């Protein structure tokens, strides 16, 4: 672990299977939280894992996933984490390669706007290849989501097998990874309500899945840390893509989506209002991507063999996840910046504080 930033001062490591169990370290549940906690379930015995920020809680057949307040939806920033180690550099270069392949497959070309863009109509801009139409955006989303749902499932599978093989506790990683995989799949299911992809497109997804699943599987066997870093960077790209899309819709450049209602599946999944629009769905999806970005960059900072997943019991809200890329331990006395905090350091401290609180909850329940 030398040279790798730690997430917190005193690492919380896995218990042996014969040690006393503690809440949150293995398969935690929101019911473990105090009843007056904002994340506690609204009614005892409810199977929903949706936080009680909404009046009505229905049974929920999906895994835990965040439901965002309107303020959280707007708290997401486009961010990029600079590589600090060789493994970081490898991970980022793989993302650049994946991005290039993805651009080729989805036919995306970034063409700078012409000087007279403000006087051109949407049709003229589309004809000139300066902006994408709704079908091109959807094609991009569908391909992106069909791939994005793979890493969480692969990582969860391998951690599951590792736990079986070594007969050791997993320390709460599997569930977070499965949640991520399902969350990405729900993105795909949501966008599928708007388009029925061609057989050619499906064949491309099939081929890409075959290659990516196996490649990620092998890479995760070699270096889980590099793989989580890779996903962290991939999610940076996803946040960027959805942020661009939001801007385009709000600037009236995708008129088909200006007042398009949200699909029912999305209203149910993210607990959106009856009058929710497709734009609200894109905001929610972007927030999810920001969650994956934060979680994966953070997991890449952990020792995958011994550390407990700090997000097993709870997750920070979007004000932390949307503007922070990773959790690092950097105490003022260590780096000599007792008085001066750069914005990034401040953000890292805020995230670190959150993680430390989570560990106190877990430790307190031992
Ligand atoms: Fe996604
Ligand atoms: Fe994602």
Automatic annotation (TrEMBL):
Cofactor descriptive note: Binds 2 iron ions per subunit.
Cofactor section: Fe cation
EC number: 1.-.-.-
Compartments (UniProt record): Mitochondrion inner membrane
Family annotation (InterPro entries): AOX (IPR002680), AOX_sf (IPR038659)
UniProtKB keywords: Electron transport, Iron, Membrane, Metal-binding, Mitochondrion, Mitochondrion inner membrane, Oxidoreductase, Respiratory chain, Transit peptide, Transmembrane, Transmembrane helix, Transport
GO BP annotation list: alternative respiration
Domain of life: Eukaryota
Region feature (Disordered): 1-41
Cellular component terms per the entry's GO annotation: mitochondrial inner membrane; respiratory chain complex
GO molecular function terms noted in the UniProt entry: alternative oxidase activity; metal ion binding
Membrane-spanning parts: 141-161, 199-222
Listed Pfam families: AOX
Enzyme's top EC category: oxidoreductase
Family in the record: Belongs to the alternative oxidase family.
Function: Catalyzes cyanide-resistant oxygen consumption. May increase respiration when the cytochrome respiratory pathway is restricted, or in response to low temperatures.
Protein name according to UniProt: Alternative oxidase
Protein source organism: Grifola frondosa
């Amino acid at each position: 672990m030398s040279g790798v930033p730690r997430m917190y001062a005193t690492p919380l490591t896995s218990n042996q299977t014969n040690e006393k169990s503690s809440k949150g370290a293995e398969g935690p549940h929101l019911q473990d939280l105090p009843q007056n906690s904002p994340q506690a379930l609204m009614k005892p015995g409810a199977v929903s894992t949706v936080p009680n920020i909404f009046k009505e809680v229905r049974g929920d057949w999906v895994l835990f996933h965040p439901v965002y307040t309107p303020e959280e939806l707007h708290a997401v920033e486009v961010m990029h984490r600079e590589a600090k180690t060789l493994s970081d550099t490898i991970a980022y270069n793989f993302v650049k390669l994946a991005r290039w392949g993805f651009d080729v497959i989805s036919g995306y070309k970034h063409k700078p706007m012409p000087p007279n863009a403000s006087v051109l109509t949407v049709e003229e801009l589309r004809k000139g290849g300066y902006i994408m139409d709704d079908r091109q955006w959807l094609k991009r989303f569908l391909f992106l989501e069909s791939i994005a749902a793979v890493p969480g499932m692969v990582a969860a599978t391998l951690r599951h097998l590792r736990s079986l093989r070594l007969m050791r506790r997993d320390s709460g990683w599997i569930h977070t990874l499965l949640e991520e995989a399902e969350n990405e799949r729900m993105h795909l299911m949501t966008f599928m309500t708007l388009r029925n992809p061609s057989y050619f497109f499906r064949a491309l997804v099939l081929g890409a899945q075959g290659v990516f699943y196996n490649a990620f599987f092998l890479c995760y066997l070699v270096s889980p840390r590099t793989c989580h870093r890779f996903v962290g960077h991939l999610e940076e790209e996803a946040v960027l893509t959805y942020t661009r899309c939001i801007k385009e819709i709000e600037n009236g450049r995708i008129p088909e989506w200006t007042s398009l209602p949200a699909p029912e599946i999305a209203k149910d999944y993210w607990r959106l209002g009856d009058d929710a629009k497709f734009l609200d769905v894109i905001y929610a999806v972007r927030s999810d991507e920001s969650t994956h970005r934060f979680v994966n960059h953070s997991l890449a900072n952990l020792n995958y063999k011994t550390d407990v997943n700090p997000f097993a019991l709870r997750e920070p809200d979007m004000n932390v996840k949307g503007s922070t890329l990773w959790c690092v331990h950097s105490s003022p006395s260590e780096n000599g910046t007792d008085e001066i905090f750069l914005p990034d350091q401040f953000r890292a401290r805020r995230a670190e504080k959150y993680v430390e609180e989570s560990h106190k909850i877990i430790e307190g329940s031992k």
